[in-house]
Amino acid sequence: MKFLILGFGSAGQRHASTLRALRPEAEIVTADPRGHATHRDWRVALEIPGKIAGVLICSPHDAHLEQIEAANARGLPIFCEKPLCTTAQTADGLALAERVSVPFAMGFQYRFHYAFERIPFKSDLTFIGSDYLVYRYGMTVVETMASHAIDWALRSRGAATEVELRTDGIRLSGQMTHETDCRSVFNYDMEADPRISRIRWLGGVFDLSSSDAAYVKELQAWLTLLDGGPRDPRLATLADAVAVQKVMAQCKAY
Fold first, then answer.
1. Rounded Cα distance, 57 and 59, in Å
2. Spatial CB neighbours of 179, under 8 Å, sequence gap ≥ 6
3. Phi/psi of residue 51, each to 5°?
4. Are 243 and 154 within 8 A, CB to CB?
5. How confident is the model at residue 78 (pLDDT cuts 50, 70, 90)?
6. What pLDDT digit, counting tens, does each position of 105-141 carry?
7. Residue of higher predicted confidence among 167 and 211
């Protein structure tokens, strides 16, 4: 059994470690042009001999669509890290989503966070985040860091009926109104210390700092799906990824 990881930065390495723990017998093949991987060219990696059980796309998100399309053409199940694509690629992402036919999961690991089920459904939410990550992601940092919070809001509070968000690619602020009449407020600054990731609601505050448990549960749910088991309802679909992408595309500039 082989798994292919496209992109071997921090996300790819985290998933490789989790895969080794969950499937010790699996062969993990990696691709990253920066080195420290089995292959530098992900296209070459897709052509390796032997059956590939699944592809984990952990590359920079401007490469996601091309890699999703290539894996789908080969009939390979896909796990894709957030977000689906850049906001500039939204139209192409929505078109591609209609053509994907393989088992697909989007990496919105917040759904597996212990706090997800503990906040009353009718409560308004406020997402707060800061970190100094612009050096890593450039002016697309918010697309990566805030997309899973937007997914949390949509998943737990319903579709957005009004989007009043502003971003410059580093900061994101504003709110969404949901079909349940709840509001989700966002205040992200990815060029600021200290590192903070929190969700606030009427009853208190939860720390949403990176949780290995959430990543492990999410990947296990994807592996169960590949084994022919039932799909965990927390496992984000391509339709969920599209919903988040549509919200991100409505963000206005500061």
1. 6
2. 158, 159, 160, 161
3. -75, 130
4. yes
5. very high
6. 999 999 999 888 888 878 899 999 999 999 988 898 9
7. 167
Residue 250's nearest CA partner among 108, 150, 170, 111 is 150
DSSP 236: B
Burial 215-239 (b: 16+ CB within 10 A, else e): bbbbbbbbbebeeeeeebebbbbbe
Question: Of 65, 50, 57, which Cα lies nearest the Cα of 4?
Answer: 57
Measured in degrees and rounded to the nearest 5, phi and psi for residue 44 equal: -65, -40
Sequence length of the chain is 254
In 38-103, which ranges are E strands? 52-57, 78-81
Contacts of 62 by beta carbon, 8 Å cutoff, 6+ apart:
85, 86, 89, 140
Q: What's the DSSP call for residue 248?
A: H
Q: 124 with 183: CB under 8 angstroms? A: yes
Q: Which residue has the tokens 């789908």?
A: 72
Comparing C-alpha atoms, which of 68, 49, 51 is closest to residue 6? 68
Cross-strand partners of 104: 78
CA pair distance 180, 198, nearest whole angstrom: 22
Burial 18-28 (b: 16+ CB within 10 A, else e): bbeeebeeeeb
Task: Report yes or no: 177 and 162 within 8 Å, Cβ to Cβ.
Answer: yes
Instruction: Say what the pTM is.
Output: 0.96
Q: What DSSP string describes 95-133?
A: HHHTT--S-EEEE-GGGGSTTTTTS-TT--EEEEEEEE-
Amino acid at 241: A
CA distance 103 to 195: 34
| CA–CA separation, 192 and 131 (whole Å) | 5
